[in-house]
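Fig. S4 source data, part A: sequence.
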Amino acid sequence: VFGKQWYQRRVRGEQMDSEQREEYEAMRSKFNFHPVDEERLIRGFNDRKKALDLEESDSLHKYDLKVLQDLDKQVDDQQTYLSAAQIPGMKRTTDSAELKRQMFIISIIDTLQNKSS
């Protein structure tokens, strides 16, 4: 168990204290573990970690794009619906200033609706 814990700490860049170092050296000599093997294992682990980080980053990027596309679709649907209902100031747009105005109009409508309830 110690070897695995030390390996994980080493990969994370943590340093061992002298007691941990002694225990590690004892384990290494007991199992005839060569430093070159250790470096190769760490290098392999780091390569795998980089690949997984890149894969995770790519996956998150794809998810973020999907969420943004879904939000854009919902905004477009809402603009279409409110425009068809002839709500003043509502039209299909991607202009950020116009979108802020529309959000303000919707908040006013929501406030009026809540006061009348």
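Fig. S4 source data, part B ends here. The longest helix spans residues 35-84.
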